[in-house]
Design a protein that fits this description.
Blueprint: H1 8-12, H2 26-51, E1 58-62, E2 67-72, E3 75-89, E4 94-97, H3 106-112, H4 117-122, E5 133-134, H5 137-151, E6 155-160, E7 167-177
Antiparallel strand pairs: 1-2, 2-3, 3-4, 3-7, 4-5, 6-7
Length: 180
């Protein structure tokens, strides 16, 4: 993930305009997106350096507790609190916001609803769309970057489902080592 990849949502800008006046120009939005993406890259590097995210043999997240766990030899080494952002399907090349996903438990959907604020901040309707919409993987990461910045989260984890190939993006709001 490199900051130079910021392009996907900029290309979708014209098709994502809501019925009201834009609050950001295209140039302002591209700058906002570049800032969010660069910030996400820095946060991801910090999570990797301090908590070794991405190196554990297993991970697990539980909606009931909103906990994301990273395991080594069956033992929880790192645990994080999360807010679900959304999911990306590589098969259909679509994104669905967590707040609009009936497979996400209601308490987590409510926590994710603050992501709808991005529509009023940017003027882009895609931030308020409950139905799946077309994106590519770069755009999925860009949406996650904007969400992480808006939530003031510590970073993001992309949880890959072995069952259907779905990528669930989770904003890490707090994180701690469980083993010393």
């Amino acid at each position: 993930m490199a900051a130079s990849q910021v392009a996907g949502l900029g290309l979708a800008f014209n098709g994502a305009i809501s019925g009201r006046a834009l609050l950001m120009t295209e140039a302002e939005f591209k700058s906002f997106l570049a800032e969010a993406y660069a910030e996400l890259c820095q946060k991801q590097d910090a999570l990797q350096a301090e908590y070794f995210i991405g190196t554990f043999s297993r991970w697990w997240f539980e909606q009931e507790t909103a906990k994301l766990q990273f395991l080594e030899s069956g033992i929880v080494a790192v645990e994080a609190d999360f807010i679900p952002i959304g999911s990306y399907s590589p098969r259909s090349k679509t994104w669905k916001w967590a707040w609009g996903n009936e497979h996400v438990l209601p308490p987590l959907r409510r926590r994710a609803e603050m992501l709808k604020d991005l529509e009023s901040i940017t003027g882009l309707a895609l931030f308020g769309r409950a139905d799946p919409f077309e994106v590519d993987e770069t755009m999925a990461w860009e949406l996650a970057a904007l969400a992480v910045m808006h939530l003031d989260a510590r970073g993001c984890y992309r949880a890959l489902s072995a069952d259907d190939g779905l990528h669930s993006f989770l904003a890490i709001t707090d994180i701690r080592k469980m083993l010393q």
